Structure formats: structure tokens, C-alpha cells
Amino acid sequence: MQDQLSALLAQAAAELPALTTRPEFEAAKARYVGPHGALTALMKQMGALPKEQKPVAGKLINETKGQLQTQLDTALARIEAAEIAAQLGPAVDVTLPSPDAPPGTRHPLTLVRDELCSILRKAGFVIADGPEVETEYYCFDALNTPADHPARDAQDTFYLPDGVRFGNVAKKNPGEKYLLRTHTSSVQIRTMLAGKPPIRIVAPGRVYRRDTVDATHSANFHQIEGLYVDRGVTVRDLKALLDYIFASLLGPDTKVRFRPHYFGYTEPSFEVDLSARHLPKVNKEWVEICGCGMVDPLVFEGVGYDTDVWSGYAFGIGLERLAMMLYGIDDIRYFYQNDLRFLRQFS
Amino acid sequence: MKISRNWLQTYVDLTGRSADEISRAITFLGFEVEGVALTGAPKLEQLVVGEILTRAKHPNADKLSVCTVDIGPAGGVKTIVCGASNCDPGRRVPVALPGAVLPGNFTIKQSQIRGQLSDGMMCSAKELALSDEAAGLLVLDGSPALGTPINAVLPPGDTVFDIEITPNRPDCLGHLGVARELAAWFKQDLVYPEVHFTPEHADPAPRPDLLRALHVDAPEDCPLYTATVITGVKIGRSPAWLQQRLSAVGLRPVNNVVDAGNFVMLEYNQPVHAFDARKLSGQTILVRRAAPGEKITTLDKHERTLTADMLVIADAVKPVVIAGIMGGENSGVSADTTDLVLEVAHFRRQSVRATAKRLALASDSSYRYERGVDPHSLEEAMHRCIDLILATAGGTVAGPTLKAGGDVPWQREITVTPAFINERLGFTLPATEMQAALERLELETVRTDPTPDRGPAWTFAIPSWRDDLDRPIDLVEEVLRLHGSDQIPAAPVTAPALLAEDAPMVAFNRRVTDHLVNQGFNECITYTLRPAKEAAAWIAPAPAADLALANPFVEDQSHLRPTLIMGLLDALKLNRSRGTAASRLFETGRMFLGRDGQTWECAAVAFLIAEPPDKRSWLQREPADFSLAKHHMTVIAAAAGLDFSRQPSVPATAPGWQEGQAAAINDHAGHWAARFGLLNLTFVKSLGLEGKIYAGCFAILPEKIAAPAARRRYADFSLFPAALRDLALVVDAATPAADVQKALAKAARAAAGNSFAIESVTVFDLYQGKGLPEGKKSLAFSLVFRSSTRTLTDDEVNAVFAQIQKAITADGTLSVRA
């Protein structure tokens, strides 16, 4: 019996490593350890052995069975590995580029707008919105810009024909004209009329001027408007906010100064100049970046706010101008050409 | 506006202040300094007038001359070597003597030049920093005395500030106004011009033969008109000082009378006009409306045709001045003028502005009237101008000044307390500083009333030239200006939370942008204004008219855009033409739609996917198709709170889209609209673009963008297994899948009744071709059944499934595919 068992092991050792497929393996396994297999047949012979030989034979058979099982496990593991390898195919060249589109990009004006909005949201401002087609009331009258003011000239402002009706831009006065807003300040009026103080909004948006397009002028451009109405708002609060905005945007070496100026809808009014040592265009001299001021009492009266109770400030920043300064862009037209070599630089 | 430092110096002492210091003062007073220019000669020592006596060729140099030059009492005759070609005997030229320091820090010494002693230098204009003229010696006209210090001969050096006067401060359109501001800033006294003329100085005898009366027909536009007759003047050149004043600020000197008028205008911000009295017909000046079509040739030699709303100054037969704007050639002062009528008047700003605009004729005078002239300085300006004319042109004032209209009354007071000013500023200034600042601006304290807790209540009289000061807040600005707006102390941002939400539009844009950027789209920003023909091509021609601007600036930007896609196509084309591979672009912004005879401003998103025709890649991906466009559109709509899986798509019929390859999803209420799919190939080709371009454009009324939905309640769901059945249906090829799906879902619900739920009915296969009749297609659906209370048995599911098949095929329009 010992010889038979040895022969069986030798046969398995010769046959099993040559198997390549799972069916071959299953068939071989059946031939050795299956119900009709060779080892099973030898185990059945044990009953016929004399009683004293049985423990020895049993031990031998168990040893053989264990060795066979090891051989089978080895063969199976090898076949499974080959199967997985077949499933995977050859190794990839991990250095090949992805054939899919790379991530897209946000426009630089969007990036600057979002950055400003997020800076202002930290200071409690919420983002408001208003129409680009406006009426004379919201764009001019309510902002204390009298009817004969040059800004209202058809030379500077785009108007829509008299007969046009806008379904979702309500006129305040029946006779007034529709126009394309010349500044986002119109959102101040809509917000104040629609709500109650205190108010703290930032309104980014597109505005229009009848300008010749050149490196610094565009028929439409973008502004970001801020309005803060509360009790006891002061000039110092306004300065503090603008200091905060520009330090957040440009870093702690940024200096901000106020120069007195004139706007019809703020009193006092200021132009704001920046200087920042690390920015190429702004390191040597002051660069004008923003207009601002304390909301003129006439504007509050126009929207029915009690000027004895409420005060506030407003500011407006030109997005293109700011983006040009931040990124060092010298031609406003690049923003509107959308050359991908331009767009991809900012993400 | 140009402001001369020398001129300012006559009203306020700026001695010792640098140009930078004055610039800074002007800046912080609220006027932007756009430029600072130096004019005239700097202060030059040891430079005198000399006359060249002889000229001989330098023995050792071809291009040099040796001259003898007489500098008179300053040092007699000198020998000077000169390189200029115009050093001819008899000429008087500037001579720099040893010790002189020329501009550029060049010191003149006695020296040997090629073996010849030179005892100084004769100078060109450039060497004296007078101009860029370096070609020859500066030849001094008018035979100035030998030895005269050169500064006495040359125009004096001046610094000219070009400053932007804000519209609220017309008073600073005159030097006196700017000087007043600087005097307040530097805490100096303001010295007003000395005006000598008073009505008593006039010759009491009027000259009715020259001017008898004034008549103002339109007092609403001309509240005050004054005219003075001056006889016996002699027209000639103005004195040097007057010419220098005008030249420094960019005005060309004309003659003594015209220059005097211009000087007063630039001093007081009060336009003055002089006519030749003998050129007036009749003896009456009439301020009247122009006759329609009436013509006048103005001093700039252009003939102007007037309309009936324009105001003119006229004599008996003709208009002689367009009021407040420009005089006529027919009555101007000329070399032979002897008798003048001097006009100083007040015209309503709106009237001057309207006329100047209509005639496209702007002048220094109209600019000032439009911005605002102080009627209360009118008389003083008249007297000042008379002084100047009498001094420079001689003559006699004949009779009293004639006057039509009355003084516009002026009295304005503002009461303010230091507490109010401090509250508005947010920091504390001493009350004494505030009051002193306002008084330096000539706001006179007329009353001081004590208050219990707010400091003294000052009442200030506002000067007539400060029409911009009307309320206490206006005085806050004045105090801050003089304190220095660069001195506002820093402070922390105080920001109590408002707990408000951003506009829904903001979240919409953010979601859409996030999605598209993640999907490889590049954000573009394109112009809102587009050409007319494009608006007509993209939408039907009729509504395009509603998008037209009344006053476009350029022809190809005449209409509001009815889609964002055209701008993206422009961007695509630009990138392709530059060889930049662009395939996925998008924009968010406003677009404009017409509906029900009205135009609607919509928030919009558009995208396009344009694989380049020759796209090459080491690994091919599925090309873009209609379904990809639909997918992106579905995500965009979801960002606005819309579930497009529940909205029926219909074939898009709008121009611009390819028939049979594009869809529309429309809101019956008109709150939003979506178009997506393949762009019309012919149309795209006509734009010069090749290949298939898939696109989508979604528009929604901003006010209809849904705010975040209310919190949902949890709904129980079944833990029992689902039963699945597949069903293929054969239908006409033209039947929309959505219709079949809807009918099948309806039949399934009816068949299942209350016994269990139809969880979903979804299409998973579409087949057309071999094995199916011509014109038919097969749609395969997966049906999912589930009960919330038990595991379904095959038998009950089969029974319902059989019923469904029977019901769905009942009308014979479709059949179950075997």
C-alpha cells in the first residue's frame, strides 16, 4: 500500500503542475480525491487489512491525503492567478495622458467676483441680484441723478425704444424709459424698496456704457456693489470695511486711502486708492480702485427710510479693473475673447 | 481744468511749498490732479541780456565762432566761444556768465575752448529749459536793455496743475475758488483781488447812441443781464503778465479786451462777453428766443442754425451771441473797435446745456454756465473786468451799468452740532477744529446755541458760491475734507449677523458652474449686445425687433442677445482660428426673450460641445451625442429646482437647431425654456465652423428660480425583494418613447391595483432593423414590482404581467415583441 500511495503522490506531482485550466483541474482533482478517485479507492482497501496494520495504513493514507491537498491547492492558486492575469491584460502605461477632457475653468472675472463675495460674506453681506435692463428711476432718479445730468445722455447710456414693454422689469413711473443699467447701484434701490433695514448686501453684475472699445473700455463690464444700512453707520465703518476687503484680497501690506470725491447718491463721497508693494502696477503709486460714500439722505428719503434712524454706506468696485490689477492683465478685451490659453491661466 | 501756481499766489501765499505739497493738498481737497507741468523760465542767476558785437571763425575748430558780446553795465564786453550757427552780430541773446547754474545743474566757468578763452556762454531756449528748441541761440525780441537779468525778459516759471473739478464744485472753475480751498487747507489768508471800479467812477453821461436799453424776453432762462458801455478803448496786445496768465493755463492771448474777459472768467468763474458797440444795430439789446431757422456765424467761423428754444442776445436786426455759449463774428471786438458793450449775465444752466448739446458747441463759457455760475459774484466780476480794460485798453465807462432782471435772492443757513459730525464720522474731532475748518471755507457762524448734551449748535451762513452745501451732512464732508480723509482712524469690522440668504440666482449659478466646470467646460464671458441680423436669424424676425436698442453705439452691437449660444460660437471660432483646441464652453448670464408682446429678462446658461473634426487620441471615447446634451440640460434644470425627468421633451423647431436632432422643453406658464441637441449644420457652417456641435441653452425668469425646497419627510420603504419582468414592445418608429412608457406605466398600475406597487417602468433598449417590419421599432422596458408587506410570488406577478400585456396591446397600435 505504501508503494501505491507513493506512486499516487508522484503521479500527482508530475501531472498537477502541467494543468492550465479550471476544468482540467476539476477533472484531475476528481481522479485523485473525488468519490471515484484513486485515493478514495485506496482508502476503501483499508477495510480489508488486518487489524494490526490498520493504524499504520491509516496514518499513511492521512499523510498522503494532506500532501495531495497541498499539491491541489498549489495548482489551483496557480490557475486562479493565471485567470486574473488573463482578465487584466497587459500592464498599463501609467504615464499615458487621460483621453478625457481635463477639468474646465472658471472665468477670471468669476474667480475675482467669487473671491470678493466670499470676503464680504464673512462680514455678513449677502449676495443680491437685480435686472440689467433698468428704468430711469432705479438707475438715476432714485440715486439723486437729476434729469439733465450728463450721465443720462443718450450719448453715454443705452436706451430701449419707447414702445418696448418688459414683462419682468417693473417701471416705477409710467412715463420713464427702459435703459441698460450704467452701474449696479440700481440694485441698492430695488433691495431697499423690497426689504427693511438693516441691510447688508453685495450685488455683482454686468453694466453698460456707450464707450468706444479699447484696451481699458468695454461696452459692457462688471461691477460689484455693496450697501450697508443700519443704525449709527459711520465713515470710519466704511473705511474699516474697505481696509478689510483689500487686505483680504491683496495681503497685509496693502494700503488704502480715501480721497474726497463727488457722487450724487453718497455724502460724503470718496474715491479709494490702493497701494501694495507686491503688485507690479500698484507698488509705486496709488491706484484708484473703487468709489464709495455714506448713503445720501435723499436716497433714503426716496425709499421711505427715516434718516434720523438709519444711516449707511455704499461702494462700487469695477471687476475688470480689479482683475487686471490682480492678474497683471493689460487689455480688457482679453476677458471677452475667451481664448483658452487665457482662460486656463487662472484656475 | 488748468490752474497756475503763479496765479494762485496772487490770492494765497504758497511761498516755499513744493509742487508735490500743493498737488497733495488739491488731491485731498477732493480734486484729482491729472497732471503737473512746468512752464516758463526757472529762476536764473548770472544770466543777462547781451548783444553780439563781432563774430570770427575759431582758428582751431570749423564749427565754432569766437564772438565779442556786450553785456552793458553787467560787465562790459566779453569774449565768448559759440557753437551756434545764428550768433550773428547785432542779435541780443541770453548770456550766462561764469557762476551761472543752468537747468540740469550745469555750472558755467571761464574756460579755454580749443585754445581760446571763453568768458561765459550764450544760450538756446533748451539750455534755459524754456522749450525743446536747441537749434540756435534764443534771440530776444524787442531790444531789451543790455545787462538786464534774463528773468525780467523771459516769461516767469510757473507750475500748472491740471485738475478735475467735480460737478458739485463749479466755484473751483475759477482760480479764486481753488485759492480759497488751498488757503483753508494751508491755514493761510485768502487775499481777494482789489476791485477799484465803483459805479461812482463812471462818467455820468450815458451814451444812448450806443446802448439805450436792455430787454429780456425770456427771464426764466436769463434771470439777470447786465451791460456796461465803455468808450474810447484802444485795442492792442495785453500786458505781458496778463498774457502769461492766460498762456500758462492754455488760453491763447487775443487782445487786451478779450483777454481781460477771459481772465475774469478764469478768476471768478463768471463768463464775460464784450461786443463792439458800433456793430450793434439799434440801441437796444434784446435777450430773446431764436427764430426757427435763424442763423448766426459764431466766432469759430461756423454758421449755426438755431431753433426756437435757444436763447440769443440780439440787436435790432440780428442775433449777436448764442446766450452763454459763444459770440457772433458780426459783433466781435476787432483791432479798430473803440466802443464796447461788456456783458455779464446769468443764464439758466439747463438752457445753456440743452443749446450747447443741440449745437454740439461747447465753450469755456458754456461749460461754466452748465456747471453753475454764482449770480452773486456777477457784479464784482463786472467791476473787475472794467478795471482790467481801463488799465490795459484805456477808455471811459459811459453811464451806469444797465441791468435787466433782479438779483436771485440768496440766504442759506445750516445748523449743526459737533456731536452730529462726530457721530457720522465715527471718530471724535475737537469742536474748535470743526468750527475753524468751516470758517476757513468762509462759512460764517451767525449763531451759537447751547444744547444740553450735543455741544454748541452752530448756525452757519453758507456763501452764495457753495450751492452744494444744503444739509448738516454736507458740513460733515467739509470738516472731514479739511481734517484730511487720509486721517480716518483704522477700526475693526463690526458685523452683526443678518442671517439672510443669498439671492436664489446665486446658488443656481454656483451649482451650474460647479457641474459644468467639473465636466470639463471652460467658462466664457461674451458681450450682451449682438448684431441685428443674428438676432433675426436665431429667433423669428418679428420679435427680434423688440430686442433692438434705441441708440446703439456700433452697428454690430445693436440688439440684446436672445441666446448665449452665439457668443460661445464666436469664442469657439476664435479659438479654432488661433489653433487652440476648444471643445467645451459655457456661459452664465442674462438673455432676453419675447413672449406675449413683452420682452423678458432671463437668467440663462448655455453650453456647447464641439469635438474638433480631426480629433485624435490614443484612446477613442464615445463621441458626444444628443443624450449627452440632454444630460447636462437635466442637471442645469435641477440646479434651478426643476425635475426634467418629469418634463416632456418635444422636437425643437427653432432656427439654429438641426431638425430631428434637437429638443425643447417648455414651460406652459412661460417661466423657463430649454433647447438642446445638435446645432443646425448648415447654420453652423455658414458661420465658418465645421463639424457637429451639440449645445444647450436654458433660460429662466430670475424670480422663478426655486429657493431651496422645504425639508422632506422620511417615507417608509419596503424590505421585501422586488420582482422584475422585461417587456419589449413593437411600435411605429415615430412614436415617442415617452408616450409608450407613459401608457405602459398606466397599464401596469391599473393591472396591479392595490395588491402591490409598480416601482418603476424604464426603457432599457431600443432596436430597429432586421427582424422588425419596416417603419417599426422595438422598445424594451424593465418593470419592477414590489410589495411593502410580503415577498411576491411568481404566480401573482405573472398574472399581473399577463394582464399588462393584454391591456397595452388592446388598441392594436403596439404589439409585444416575441
Order of helices and strands of chain A: HHHHHEEHEHEEHEEEHEHHH
Q: What CATH first level of the largest domain in chain A would be assigned? A: Alpha Beta
Q: Which pair has the most extensive contact? A: A-B, 82 and 99 residues
- Cα-based radius of gyration of chain B, to the nearest Å: 43 Å
Task: State the assembly state of the protein chains.
Answer: heterodimer
Tally of contiguous helical segments of chain B: 19
3D shape of chain B: elongated
Considering the protein shown, what is the CATH homologous superfamily of the largest domain in chain B?
A: Phenylalanyl-trna Synthetase, Chain B, domain 3
Q: What proportion strand of chain A?
A: 15-25%
CATH superfamily of the largest domain in chain A: Bira Bifunctional Protein, Domain 2
Give the helix tally of chain A: 12
Q: Give me the count of strands of chain B.
A: 40
Low-confidence stretches of chain B: none
Number of DSSP-assigned strands of chain A? 9
Structural description of this entry:
- The complex is a heterodimer of chains A (347) and B (818).
- With 347 residues, chain A is α+β, with helices and mostly antiparallel strands.
- Chain A has 2 domains: 2-88; 108-343, Bira Bifunctional Protein, Domain 2 (BirA Bifunctional Protein, domain 2, 2-Layer Sandwich), CATH 3.30.930.
- Chain A has helices at residues 2-15, 22-33, 38-45, 54-88, 108-122, 136-139, 186-194, 235-250, 297-302, 319-327, 334-337, 340-343, and strands at residues 126-127, 133-135, 178-180, 199-208, 220-231, 254-263, 266-276, 287-295, 310-318.
- In chain A, the strands form 2 sheets. Chain A has a 7-stranded mixed sheet with strand order 1-4-5-9-8-7-6, with helices on both faces. Chain A has a two-stranded antiparallel sheet with strand order 2-3.
- In chain A, helix 1 runs parallel beside helix 4, helix 2 packs antiparallel against helix 4 and helix 5 packs across helix 10.
- The two termini of chain A are 80 Å apart.
- With 818 residues, chain B is an alpha+beta fold.
- Chain B has 6 domains: 2-40 and 158-186, Phenylalanyl-tRNA Synthetase, Chain B, domain 1; 47-152, Nucleic acid-binding proteins (OB fold (Dihydrolipoamide Acetyltransferase, E2P)); 199-405, Phenylalanyl-trna Synthetase, Chain B, domain 3 (Phenylalanyl-tRNA Synthetase, Chain B, domain 3); 413-487, 2-Layer Sandwich (Phenylalanyl-tRNA Synthetase, Chain B, domain 1); 504-614 and 622-704, Bira Bifunctional Protein, Domain 2 (BirA Bifunctional Protein, domain 2), CATH 3.30.930.10; 723-816, Ferrodoxin-fold anticodon-binding domain (Alpha-Beta Plaits, 2-Layer Sandwich).
- Chain B is built from 19 helices and 40 strands.
- In chain B, a hairpin with a 7-residue loop joins strand 3 (47-57) and strand 4 (65-70).
- In chain B, helix 9 (418-425) packs across helix 11 and helix 18 (737-752) crosses helix 19.
- The N and C termini of chain B lie far apart (92 Å).
- Chains A and B meet through helix 5, strand 1, strand 4, helix 8 and strand 6 of A and helix 2, helix 6, helix 9, helix 11 and helix 12 of B.
